[in-house]
Amino acid sequence: MSTKRIIKFEKEDCSPCNMVSEYLDRKGIVYETINPFNDPELAMQFRVRSVPTVILMEAEQEMARVIGYKPEELAALA
Asked: What are phi and psi of 43, to 5 degrees?
């Protein structure tokens, strides 16, 4: 059983955040969404400084991070 998960930090009214969501949805990539402004403790835990930030976790270890809308890097997360 895979313990991989993708966490996407985003905020409302953020065009790049929406573009990342649309890309992930089109590719059928499952992810959980967190607004770092509503959950600052979690944002600090993951060292998120800007949105969108997409983090690939495996067994509670960070394997990859994509900041901003970068389709070629997002594709590598799948």
From this structure: -60, -40
Per-residue model confidence as pLDDT tens digits over 31-61: 999 999 999 999 999 999 999 999 999 988 9
- Run of H or E residues at 73: helix 71-75
CB count in 10 Å sphere of residue 68: 15
Cα 58–chain centre separation: 13
Q: The tokens of 35 are what?
A: 């607004």
Q: Is 49 exposed, middle or buried (0-12, 13-18, 19+ CB in 10 A)?
A: exposed
Whole-number pLDDT of residue 2: 61
DSSP notation for 13-66? T-HHHHHHHHHHHHTT---EEE-TTT-HHHHHHTT--SSSEEEEEETTEEEEEE
